[in-house]
Amino acid sequence: xxxxxxxxxxxxxxxxxxxxxxxxxxxxxxxxxxxxxxxxxxxxxxxxxxxxxxxxxxxxxxxxxxxxxxxxxxxxxxxxxxxxxxxxxxxxxxxxxxxxxxxxxxxxxxxxxxxxxxxxxxxxxxxxxxxxxxxxxxxxxxxxxxxxxxxxxxxxxxxxxxxxxxxxxxxxxxxxxxxxxxxxxxxxxxxxxxxxxxxxxxxxxxxxxxxxxxxxxxxxxxxxxxxxxxxxxxxxxxxxxxxxxxxx
Length: 248
Prior knowledge:
Rossmann fold; seven-stranded parallel sheet; 7 helices
């Protein structure tokens, strides 16, 4: 089952405060942390809490570096609904983070292989990622590592599962073609010191149960994180609804 830490909280807001507290603990003494934030609705309350603490002086994020987790192919921060667009809105712009401290996939690039190489190099130059923040797809994907992924994979271009193509529409105001993504691989993610996996809502209960209590295999990519010594799973009561022994 793995020795990961599991926290179940009543609401996403309470969860966000506790995860922000863990950030402070995990990064204590780290002069220039490297953080990899997922985009999307699940981690947004956490980002709002980190911004609030930074702006109030309760936390200092001014020395943090950031590396992007994934992006839709054909998009970058200039495209409303892109991964970078959401993170700019929820995190980077409110914090006033300069471009010199952000490495993010440009899905509009003509050379996506070079984008992947630059991302891996950015991480390598800083030792390793200190904290990776992840959501989980209803099909178990992590970042854009879809079912069947290679646990050792690095950054690469991926073909998106039909479920991801459908669910991904929620980030856009109009129907958008989502066929491919560029993403950190599970191999790169697993090299991080700490991995925070976040999930909220009853619609995530089934996949959380599979990821934490089902077989460890590539059919549910999130399950491949269970043996990581720095894995912490943060979920609300809705997402915990189908857990058996793990949630006791």
